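Q: what does this look like with cytidine-5'-triphosphate bound?
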Amino acid sequence: MGELLATGGEALRIYTGGTFDLFHSGHVNLLRKCAELGRVTVALNTDEFIAGYKGRPPVCSFQERLDVLQACVWVDEVIPNYAGADSRPAIESVQPNIIAIGTDWARRDYHAQMGFDQDWLDERDISLIYIPYTAGISTTNLKARSADRNRL
Ligand code: CTP
């Protein structure tokens, strides 16, 4: 597929945020589809934000999750989602054309989760797109699988 270009002729800038703990094939599929659209920046949730949001820290530290994402061929850049529940400062620093997220968010309030509303996106000419979620694998699912194996 030919590369999609922004108005100025440069590659589209794709922003995607998440935790990416226990990096798995669902993450890879999402990032590959992002890379088909343009240059991919991942805004990575910090350990502090995850601990507050999920009530427990991630299995892998920020640095460990960062190292893996930086080694992924579908990722061009990783930045910390430093303002936590308010993703707007991280988004402003990237100035993306597109924000991409898996369809597991399509029926939840992703706008509220990210701390923006549709007007804020429209003012910046940012499109929000949903990428098909990979069934059958997630960080939560891997933790459950691991617990099951340890019981054997
Ligand atoms: N994602 C996906 N398919 C999966 C798992 C995740 O497309 N099977 C996408 C999510 O929609 C999100 C990104 O990967 O856009 C990062 O998701 P994250 O929450 O970090 O991963 P999960 O595996 O869903 O973690 P958890 O089980 O803790 O929710």
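The CA atoms of residues 102 and 131 lie 5 Å apart. The longest helix spans residues 25-37.
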